[in-house]
């Protein structure tokens, strides 16, 4: 009886091979044959799932983003029952930093995608979709911080959310270059959040006695 293949697992296996190659040599010099060899499968098997490099690279990018979302969700769910907006933001930002070997590989792969997307209209169109969604999520947390009295009301949540994304991009550059250590990068994140969430939360109104 022929062995049954988990096709979705095989596609994820191929996507992981793309990330590893992208993190070490970029994407421009990577062909389907290279990816097949890295994934430990034949070129024919790879072409059964992906007929072109762009189709493959787009799927790998989507899968990378989904895994990142899953990791952030797991970190947030591991917090207290009702974490503050500041704590949720801190966990999200920490997950986006290249703090260990796994996250470093992911960030290097993202940079490879960024370089290719500048000149690849199809890939750029997809890559652009993730930032507005992340910005809206961060802005929502900041609006909650304003409502709780933790963030000054004159701060614009949408602008501040974009600055947070830019902060992580900049810190990752310096982490990869060895200018900052992981501890220094996290201290800078905490420093920025302390300035952003510069007010004590408003006390919750006392509950009225029943009856």
Automatic annotation (TrEMBL):
Pfam families cross-referenced by the UniProt entry: TetR_C_6, TetR_N
Domain HTH tetR-type intervals: 8-68
Keywords, ordered alphabetically: DNA-binding, Repressor, Transcription, Transcription regulation
Alphabetized GO MF terms: DNA-binding transcription factor activity; transcription cis-regulatory region binding
DNA-binding region: 31-50
Record-linked InterPro entries: BetI_C, Homeodomain-like_sf, HTH-type_TetR-like_transc_reg, HTH_TetR, Tet_transcr_reg_TetR-rel_C_sf
Gene3D superfamilies referenced in this protein's UniProt entry, alphabetically: Tetracycline Repressor, domain 2
Source domain of life: Bacteria
Listed name of the protein: Transcriptional regulator, TetR family
Taxonomic path: Bacteria, Bacillati, Actinomycetota, Actinomycetes, Pseudonocardiales
């Amino acid at each position: 009886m022929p062995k049954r293949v988990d096709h979705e697992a095989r596609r994820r296996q191929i996507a992981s091979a793309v990330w590893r190659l992208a993190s070490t040599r970029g994407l421009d010099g990577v062909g389907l044959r290279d990816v097949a060899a890295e994934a430990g499968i034949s070129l024919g098997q790879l072409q059964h799932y992906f007929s072109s490099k762009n189709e493959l690279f787009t799927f790998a990018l989507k899968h990378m983003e989904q895994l990142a979302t899953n990791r952030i969700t797991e970190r947030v769910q591991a917090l207290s029952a009702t974490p503050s907006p500041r704590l949720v933001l801190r966990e999200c930002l920490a997950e986006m930093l290249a703090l260990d070997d796994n996250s470093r590989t992911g960030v290097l792969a993202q940079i490879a995608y960024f370089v290719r997307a500048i000149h690849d209209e199809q890939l750029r169109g997809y890559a652009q979709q993730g930032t507005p969604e992340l910005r809206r999520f961060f802005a929502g947390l900041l609006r909650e911080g304003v409502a709780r009295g933790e963030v000054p009301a004159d701060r614009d949540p949408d602008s501040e959310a974009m600055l947070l994304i830019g902060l992580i991009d900049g810190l990752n550059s310096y982490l990869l270059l060895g200018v900052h250590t992981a501890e220094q990068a996290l201290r800078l994140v905490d420093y920025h959040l302390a300035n952003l969430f510069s007010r004590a939360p408003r006390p919750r109104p006392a509950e009225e006695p029943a009856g």
